């Protein structure tokens, strides 16, 4: 795991946007895994800005969103599809056919969830999965005690998530059901970057990085992946025991990389 601690969240946004820009330059048809929520909003604004300036061309990029509420219409302002089009897709030159969301309808859900994972696989897998994190350590909507071997499926949301996400959809029959990529789906990505902001995420970040892997803190499973970056602000990093160590590693990264290159 590479832990990158930035003085404030604007620098986190700079860093993640740069990562995405570099990836798309290197692989114009990159496959991205995308989150919703408050945390990535500034990242999407930054990416839109880069798209408008011609620094990123999204025309061949493919995307897969992490999750969606069950039985919610795409034009419902509470849906993640609505969020993604409003906050990102409507403002970049991505092709509609390259945008993918987990199924929302519960009819044929098992089959459609399998298809979702299969589509990812058929495109060669997710090149870069971008994650936010819940205060309870959920990634996607893999709530505590989710199977670490799970694929895309229906999950029941915890009371805490329902409260934090302020979920009370008018006319939606099953507001506590969501469809999410599973933990194994997430871990199958080639690279993963998790971003977090603020003190409210500090405990979850500590559990993710420095405590044993376990289903009570689903994000801790990221310790099992070879290429994970955790990019966070000082406040989200405030409970990390080895904070200074992570900072030292990062400050010497260019030097150490050059040294290893020279010696090998
Ligand atoms: C949403 C998602 C969730 C959020 C998490 C944090 O697609 O996957 O795991 O990333 O709930 O949400 P915010 O960023 O609103 O704190």
Which features would summarize this protein structure in a list?
264 residues; alpha/beta; Rossmann fold; 9 helices
Could you say which structural class the secondary elements and strand pairing correspond to?
alpha/beta
- Uncertain segments are none
Principal-axes shape call: globular
CATH secondary-structure class: Alpha Beta
**Spatial sequence of strands, sheet with the most strands:** 1-10-9-6-2-3-5
Oligomer: single chain
- Do you know the CATH topology? Rossmann fold
Helical stretch tally: 9
Sheet with most strands: 7 strands, parallel
Q: What is the helical fraction, as a range of percent?
A: 25-40%
- CATH architecture classification: 3-Layer(aba) Sandwich
Total individual domains? 1
Task: Give the DSSP E fraction (strand runs of 2 or more residues).
Answer: 15-25%
**Helix and strand run:** EHEHEEHEHEEHEHEHEHH
Radius of gyration of CA atoms, rounded to a whole number: 18 Å
Bound molecules: fructose -6-phosphate
Count every beta strand, where a strand is a DSSP E run of 2 or more residues. Answer: 10
Describe this structure in words.
The protein is of the alpha/beta class and 264 residues long. It has a single domain, classed as Rossmann fold. The protein contains nine helices and ten strands. A seven-stranded parallel sheet has the order 1-10-9-6-2-3-5. Strands 4-8-7 form a three-stranded antiparallel sheet. Helix 1 crosses helix 2. The protein is globular. The two termini are 22 Å apart. The protein binds fructose -6-phosphate (F6R). The site of fructose -6-phosphate has 13 residues, from loops. Fructose -6-phosphate (F6R) binds next to loops.
